[in-house]
Amino acid sequence: MDLSLRNHPNYAYFREAWGQALPIVFGYLPIGFAFGVLAIKAGISAANTLAMSLLVYAGSAQLIAVGLISAGVSPWATILTTFVVNLRHLLMSAALSPYLRGWPRSLLALFAFELTDESFAVHSTRFARLQSQQESPKPATALTINLISQLAWVLGTLLGIVAGDLIQDVRPFGLDYALIAMFAALLVFQVKDHVYIIVAGFAGLASTALLLTGVSQWNVMIAAVVAATLGVALESWIKRQSS
Fold this sequence. Notes:
The chain has 243 residues and is an all-alpha fold. It is 76% helix and 0% strand.
């Protein structure tokens, strides 16, 4: 039975996708768990909590929404806030779009729906590697990476829903650091030379500086645009110096 599975034409896709998605899975399980617990404690029903992870599937937006709902903020204010927070997805989609030329619109829509910060980090590194090998990304592998990641998030949410009445406070478990640790691990795989280190460091400092000055909703978006512009300028300058 095991041999027949290994010989199945889709086995290679799943094995590669699982290997790529594994760091995301390790991060999404505890963060999804924390979201499930916090949502239940905020008075959101189990069905609606699960629906958010299935239909919204945006970790930061979901956690922000829970905080706003528990604070009694109006639905329109919650929708607007989460919309602004997720504007960075426009940048991520634009960055990956050159690699996805030729994909049917239906697959592009499905890929975009499950694209998150973490899966973007994995895909951007993987797509660049495939391009250097003169290969095109296969939809089956890319979509499977996204699907595995979302299933991990949903599973974490389910576990959090079950434990919602048993855990009084998630902070002693250090779950709030899991997302930061996952981003740090994914960033390491993307660093190729000193330019990446400079851009990443500048983006972090710029985002923090903007946050401290009161730009609490646009700090990530602005820092990403400025840092990306800096990276392009540095690469262009280096190419001119070497030519």
